[in-house]
Design a protein that fits this description.
2 domains, alpha/beta, transferase, nucleotide-binding, LpxK, Tetraacyldisaccharide 4'-kinase, P-loop_NTPase
């Protein structure tokens, strides 16, 4: 599976995309057929799915954190269900920060466990049932729009308005995870992440697809701005869209001297960690990374990884809704849909 999005995905035309078109059609046909299958399992809890149409970072995990925090203000006890991408667990597992590393459960699961209980499993329904056993009463499924492993009551797709849908082709010729015609049918709301005027994407999307839209911004968490303002930094990130992270750092006033865009979910080898540390030390830079990357350093025992973990700073981010009523609307619609399906 690709872990670093090719640059041609985000441009119209191009020889690379055209040459890969036959594979793209095949991938789209298979993905579309999978999405048309019946849902394999349901759980006796309200489930909201937060996914995306494209591969690469759109900001769905910070959105999941935001929704969990809001659910808690409503008196709910939210929990996260994930497949556990990159982890080695093969049965439903409750994530324990003190016991698990990203090699066990994946980096996103570790990151989300700071906010609410997390269960991971390739069979997402088993993970949801495990959360129910510990008292969770509202399930947030991070990713899963293209999967039928667990049914949901309300679905959201997050779109980075700066990148949009790229060239509109399916993997590997473009970023789409399945044909849009099929993905749209399975989506109840689209959340546009970024400035609404970027590239005119928001206006184009709302005119083409008749779906409820909401807008959010992913911003640095309060309290981290002053720490980085004016600092000379070495920024490194292994996420879906590293450039977005670098832009956020610059907006904080950081003086980025060196950047390293790693592959999404890339593990830190001792050699890579040592190289980043040497470069930062030789240039007198502060190494800064994302909370997701930092999760992949947690629990590491190799000296170079321990050194990088101890010396680097993180820039946590938060999702802010333009319309403050939208989180309540999402929770209400999820619970209403759940009640409808369980009382029929």
């Amino acid at each position: 599976m690709l872990t670093k999005a090719p640059s041609f995905w985000w441009k119209k035309g191009g020889l690379a995309a055209i040459s890969l078109a036959p594979l793209s059609w095949l991938y789209g046909a298979i993905a579309g057929a999978q999405m048309r299958r019946d849902v394999e399992a349901w759980v006796d809890l309200p489930v909201v799915c937060i996914g995306n149409f494209t591969a690469g970072g759109t900001g769905k995990t910070p959105l999941a954190e935001c929704l969990a925090r809001h659910a808690r203000t409503r008196g709910l006890n939210p929990g996260f269900v994930l497949r556990g991408f990159g982890g080695r667990v093969r049965q439903a597992t409750l994530v324990e920060k003190e016991r698990h590393t990203f090699l066990d459960v994946g980096d996103e699961a570790l990151m989300l466990s700071e906010t609410a209980p997390v269960a991971v499993s390739p069979a997402r329904a088993d993970a949801a049932r495990l959360l129910k056993e510990i008292g969770v009463d509202f399930i947030i499924m991070d990713d899963g729009l293209q999967s039928g492993k667990l049914g949901w009551d309300f679905s959201i797709s997050v779109v980075d308005v700066g990148r949009g849908l790229g060239n509109g082709r399916c993997i590997p010729a473009g970023p789409l995870r399945a044909p849009m015609a099929i993905q749209i049918v399975r989506t109840d709301m689209v959340i546009l992440n970024g400035e609404s005027g970027e590239c005119g994407f928001a206006d184009w999307f709302s005119a083409k697809y008749e779906l409820p839209l909401a807008r959010v911004h992913t911003v640095p968490a309060i309290g981290n701005l002053a720490d980085l303002s004016g600092r000379r930094v070495l920024a490194f990130a292994g996420i879906g869209n590293p450039e977005k992270f670098f832009e956020t750092l610059r907006a904080c006033g950081a003086d980025i001297v060196k950047t390293h865009a790693l592959s999404d979910h890339q593990a830190f080898s001792p050699e890579l960690a040592a190289s980043l540390l040497r470069e930062a030390q030789s240039l007198e830079l502060v190494p800064v990374t994302t909370t997701k990357d930092y999760a992949r350093l947690q629990g590491a025992m190799q000296p170079a990884l321990i050194g990088l973990r101890e010396q680097c700073q993180t820039l946590p981010v938060a999702t802010i809704f333009e319309d403050k009523q939208v989180p309540d609307d999402i929770i209400d619609r999820t619970i209403d849909s759940f009640r409808n399906r369980t009382t029929i």
